[in-house]
Each structure stands twice: as C-alpha cells, then as structure tokens.
Amino acid sequence: MRSFTTLRNSAWGIVQQVIVCVISLFSRRVMIETIGQQGVGLNALLTSIISLLSLAELGIGTAIVFHMYGPIARNDKLHIARLMHCYKMVYRVIALAILLIGVCILPFMKWIVRDVSYSNAYVMLIFILFLVQTTSSYFFTYKRSMLIADQKQYVIAIFDLIYKVVTIIGGIVVLKMTGELAYYLILLIIGTVLNNMLISKYVDKQYPYINEMKERLPGEELRSIFRDVKNIFVGKLSGVITTSTDNILITAFVGTIQTGLFSNYTIIFNTLVSVTKQLSGGMRGSVGNLIAVEQPEHVKVVLERMLFMMFLIASFCAGCLTGLVDRFITLAFGDGLLIGRTTVYILILNLYIMTLDIPISSMVAAAGMFRYDKWIAITGTVMNLIVSVIFGKMYGMAGILAGTAVTYVIQFSFKLIIFYAKYLKQNGVRIFAKIGLFTLTTVLECIVIAFICGQVYVINAYVSFLICAGISALLPVVIGSLLFCRTNEFQYTIAIIKTICSKIFGKRGGELAQH
After folding, report:
1. I need a labelling partner for 504 at 20 to 30 A (CA). Which of 28, 44, 59, 316 fits?
2. Comparing 66 with 385, which gets the higher pLDDT?
3. Which range is least confidently modeled, 59-73, 96-110, 452-466?
4. How confident is the model at residue 511 (pLDDT cuts 50, 70, 90)?
5. pLDDT band, residue 9 (cuts 50/70/90)
6. Distance, C-alpha 460 to centroid of its chain
C-alpha cells in the first residue's frame, strides 16, 4: 500500500511539474520580451529575499507533520485536531512576523537592488507585492499538512496544477497587454489566495473534526514540538542560505544582468529539482509510516532501493543537461544568453547531489533526527558562505556555485553517516562505495555525451537539438542498464515499472511489494 501511495503522489506531482514546465518556458520568453533582462533579474533577486524572510516559518510545518504520523496511524482524531489548532495559531503569528520584517527591509531596497533603471519607489512596490503574496499563503497553508501527513499529496498536486496553469497563462496575457511586472504579481496574489482557500475547504470537508475539536495540546508535547522546531530551523536556514544567497551574491559580485542570465538556467534546473522533489513529497508520508512500523533492517533495504532509483533519475538528468541545456536556452530564449560552461557543469553537479539526497533526507526527517541534522546543516552552511564569498571574488558565478556544491556534498555525506550509525546501527562504507560507483558512472556518461554532441554540426538548430536529445537520453539508460542489470535494486525497479505499466494499460500484473 505504501508503494502505491508513494507512486500515486509522485506521479501527480511529476505530471504537474511537466505541464507547468512547458508553459513556464513560454512565460519566461514573454517576460524577457516584455520586461527585459533587468526585470527578470529583479524578479529573481526579490524572490530570493522573500525566501530568506520565509525563515520565520522556523520549521513548524515539518515538526508538526512528523508529530502527526503516529496519531494518523492510530486514527486519534482528538490528537490530530489539537496539532492542527496549534499549527493554525502559530502560522498566523508567522505571517505577521514576515510582514513586519519585510516592512523593515523596505528602506534598504536602494542599496540591495543596484544597476537597474527602475526607480526605488517601483522596486519597493514590487517587493511589497511579493510580500503580500507570501504572507497571504500562511493563513491557509497549515491545512496542507493534514494531506501531507495522511499520504494524500496528490490532492495538493491537482489543486496546484490548476492554479499554476491558470496563473501562468493569465500572466502571459497580462504581460503582453501591460508589460508590467506589478500587474503580473497582483494576478499571482489573487490566484494564491483562491488556491489556498479551495484546498482549505477540501480539507474541512474531508476532516471535519479538525474544526469541531478546539482543545489545546498538552504542555509537554508542545515543548517537544518546539525542541524539534529549534533543530529543524537550523536545517531550513542552511537550505535557504544555500539556495537563496546564490542570486544575491551573483548580483553583488557580478551584477543584476548576470543574475537575469543565471535565472534563465535556474528555471530549467529548478523545474527538474521540483520534479525530483515531487518524489520526495510523494514518499514523505509513506516513509514516515515505514519508520513508524518497520524494523531498521527493512528500512535499510528500502533506503538502498530508493537511492538506486534516484541515481537512475539523477544520471539521466545529468546526461540530458550536459548535451542539451545550452542549445535549449538559445532556442527558447534567444542568442547571447549563455553562461560559462564551467558554471553549467557545477549546476549539473548540484542537481545530481540534490536528487541523491532525497531518500536520505526523507529518512532522517521521518526518524525525527533533527538534532543531528542541525549540526550537519551548520557545517554545510559555514563552508558554503566561506567558499562562495572567496571563490565568488576570484571566479565569479562559477565560484559562488562551487560553494553551493561543497554544502550539498558535506550535508549528503554526513546525513548518510549519521543515519547508518545512529538509526541502522551500521557503518556506511558499503553504501558510500555504491554511491561512488554511481557517481563515476554518471561522470563518464556526461563526458561521452559532451564529446559526441560536440561533434554534431547540423545547419538546422532544431534538428541538431533533436539528435543531441536522442544521444543524451539514450546513453544513460543503456549504460546504467548494462552495468547494474544484475543488482537486486535494478530488478526491484523493473518490477515497479512493470506494475505501473500494467495498471496504466489495465492489465493484471504483480502487486507492488508492501514496502
């Protein structure tokens, strides 16, 4: 049942991301044509600042979802209602805190946003609109936690898909008609509020008891939650610093225009990250249930299977990006918008590590190992800032992203070590050897793809892109299958694919294993 639930949640999330990705590319092209690289760069920078402000959330959501796994498994409605009531009150305070901090930042906008032709008043207006969109979501977002903990992320994916399709298409129309970023953001605010209200109504209908019971959490459990929150906060701080400061540092060391060029690439990379994170979201409730009811030895088997499947996805994405990303940028957005090839390879490395990290991060969170995760996050963040600032001054954009890569490597490695040592009570030598083999395989695939695609010279750019697409997609699949076809993880992956195909085509197939 857990496997089916994970697949259903993940499948809907991936469908959502693929559809959104396709129409977002048209939206990005329209943004470049209507508001220019300065507007795109301003949008990227202010989005990063808002992400930093969202740290006020403090990890409350993660902590409460973790504490909901047990009550949901026991169908303890009173306990669930208490948690949701706590979540509701805390998030109202968070929304107010983000709003106040944002208002305090406003006077400093003229020093934060530089090298643009927009007036300071206009920049402040755009920032206020971003702020309103973010704070409005916190009045409803706590209802999503109920669906996440109950393994029903697919419901959220369906609502979000409709919202994103409508707002992206509507945004294209607004930008074409007005050429104004401000009107585009107003549309997003309206869409965000309506989407969250609809999800809230759905949750109220499915779980009416969460509004009928108004009892408060016992003091001891409340203290336990906030102990977890303190530890989770550090991890969230690390994640936001690692991702959001890239745009800020690129603006500071290289310039706003380069931030705009970089954001053209990040829309592609972030889409792939979002797709892979749908797998994380899809498995989140299932992993929580797994940790709650299964023995560590079985958890280890599941983790290694998940890592192998993430490797297959990561190597496929790395190969396709190696052969296609520069060609795609030129075809989708126009000439003269490429960044350095070294920077592209570092972005690919970061995506690869982030994808491999999904299973172990899910396990660490589901096991409630927030205290250990806190120190892992601190170590990674310190290294990120040191390397990004020093290398950023020396090598520009590539140096800044190298700092991000260092963070991902440190955090991924230490999470594996801690989970194996503290939860599984084993050393992680064997799994590190496997990951080393996975990584070496991916590097070799990328080298071969880069060489072959570099020899493709066709007058028509679209034909050249299609040829390279075939090469880039086929090589990782063939090499991965040849090297790992005899492993248990590969056989399990094939069994899952066969089961999915049998369900899609309505044929009777083998049942998924109950893990």
Report:
1. 316
2. 385
3. 59-73
4. very low
5. low
6. 35
The alpha carbon of residue 192 and the mean position of all alpha carbons in its chain are separated, in whole angstroms, by 19
State phi, psi for 426 to the nearest 5 degrees.
-140, 165
Token duo for residue 477: 């699949």
Q: Rg of the chain over CA atoms, in angstroms?
A: 23
Classify residue 138 by its DSSP letter: T
Using an 8 Å Cβ cutoff, are 442 and 314 in contact? yes
pLDDT in tens, 336-361: 778 888 989 999 999 999 899 888 88
Give the C-alpha separation, 44 to 260, whole Å.
7
Q: Token digits for 4?
A: 């089916």
d(CA 3, CA 9): 10
State if pTM tops 0.70: no
Q: Span 169-197, mean pLDDT?
A: 89
Structure-derived torsion over alpha carbons of residues 100, 104, 105, 111, reported in degrees to the nearest 10:
170
Handedness of CA 390, 395, 400, 406 (dihedral sign): negative
Task: Tell me the pLDDT tens digit for each residue of 410-448.
Answer: 889 988 898 888 888 888 888 999 999 999 999 999 999
Both ends of the chain: CA-CA distance in Å? Answer: 8
Contact present, 369 and 376 (Cβ < 8 Å): no
- b/e string for 190-217 if b means 16 or more Cβ within 10 A? ebbbebbeebbebbeeebeebeeeeeeb
Q: Is 338 helix (H, G, I), strand (E, B) or coil?
A: coil
What distance in Å separates the CA atoms of residue 309 and residue 301, rounded to the nearest whole number? 13
Name the H helices within 334-369.
341-366
User: Which pLDDT belongs to residue 239?
Assistant: 66
Phi-psi region of 506 (alpha: psi -120 to 50; beta: other; left: phi over 0): left
Q: Are 123 and 67 in contact (CB under 8 A)?
A: no
Task: Check residue 505 and report its DSSP letter.
Answer: T
Closest CA to 438 of 347, 273, 304, 323: 304
Mean pLDDT of the 174-180 span = 89
Task: Tell the burial category of 433 from Cβ atoms under 10 Å away from its Cβ (0-12, 13-18, 19+).
Answer: exposed
Q: What percentage of the chain reaches a pLDDT higher than 70?
A: 84
Q: Are 135 and 97 in contact (CB under 8 A)?
A: no
| Cβ pair 247, 44 in contact under 8 A | yes
**DSSP SS3 for 76:** coil
Instruction: Name the least confident of 59-73, 80-94, 152-166.
Output: 59-73
What are the structure tokens assigned to 253, written together?
């060391």
What H or E segment, with its residue span, contains residue 215? none
Q: Which two tokens stand for residue 97?
A: 């805190």
